[in-house]
Amino acid sequence: MTYTTILTETRGRVGIVQLNRPKQMNAFNLAMLGEVFDAMEVFDKDETIGAIIVTGNEKAFAAGADIKEMAEVTYAQMVVEERVRVWDRIRGIRKPVIAAVSGWALGGGCEFVLACDMVVASESAKFGQPEITIGVIPGAGGTQRLARLVGKQLAMEMVINNRTLTAAEAQQFGLVNRVVAVEGYLDAAAAFAEEIASRAPMAVRMAKDAVNAAFETTLTEGLAVEKRDFYQLFATEDQKEGMQAFIEKRQPNWKGK
Ligand code: CAA
């Protein structure tokens, strides 16, 4: 498929989607939103891919929704078009999604990162929800995911008073898994993703499902999801292979079945 606002590549078992509107700081217009999620869904269905990276460029992961495209939109159009619903498609991706962030991750860009499963940040990464400065609030999950992740007080400060987090702060508050040098940040993220992609595919899928349940259900329901997923894995060849390989002191050969 030919894309106009993103680039895609594969490295081993890792699918990479790169946001590519550098002149607009990778602001999400509707075209880019559509292409990003289409590309992610293509990688999600591809059996040769085990993990997906979404990245931007060194200066900007993404500076949010495209303000110029949104400025004249009416309430009725917002309701009918449901622009921010597109972000919900990240939740539907079943393989692990890793955000590789350098520079600005603002507004919808920060919300995109919050919806990913893991985050590798370069030392220059900056995270924030500046919607308040343009008279609105985060609309793509920011108030909810941020509050669950960093707690109420910091989320309030970020959303109400445009507090921006450095990469080091984001790591301290649990928004980022690892911080790496700006130079080679995508290579570092790709190595991390390759490690994840080499793990038992069915178990990875169930693990993602179960951890997500922790944020979306009660403890009782979440424990039930975990138990169901755990039991289901005993119906897979990979469970037999993984345990046998341990006993035989060799590396497992995963089949994804
Ligand atoms: N939408 C549209 N265009 C944007 C943009 C955005 N979100 N962010 C940057 N751009 C454009 C600028 O207008 C500028 O274009 P021109 O050269 O044509 O003037 C170009 O990208 C470069 O930007 P700057 O000159 O501003 O670059 P800078 O280095 O001085 O600042 C920045 C970078 C801090 C990211 C700054 O551009 C900025 O603050 N951007 C807006 C961030 C923002 O408010 N995001 C929230 C959007 S609303 C949202 O996301 C809602 C939601 O919850 C889904």
Radius of gyration: 19 Å
Tell me the strand percentage band: 15-25%
What form results from the Cα inertia axes? globular
The percentage helix is: 40-55%
Average pLDDT taken over every residue: 96
Order of SSEs: EEHEEHHEEHEEHHEHEHHHH
User: What's the number of extended β-strand segments?
Assistant: 10
Question: Structural class, please?
Answer: alpha/beta
Query: Which residues sit in consecutive blocks of at least 5 with pLDDT less than 50?
Result: none
Ligands in the model, by name, code or SMILES, are: acetoacetyl-coenzyme A
Alpha-carbon distance between the two ends: 29 Å
Number of helices: 11
Q: Which helices and strands occur, and which strands form pairs?
A:
Layout (H helix, E strand, L loop, with lengths): L5 E6 L2 E6 L10 H16 L5 E5 L4 E3 L4 H4 L4 H7 L15 E5 L2 E3 L1 H8 L2 E5 L3 E3 L13 H9 L1 H10 L3 E2 H6 L5 E3 L4 H13 L3 H16 L2 H15 L3 H11 L10
Helix pairs in contact: 5-6, 9-10
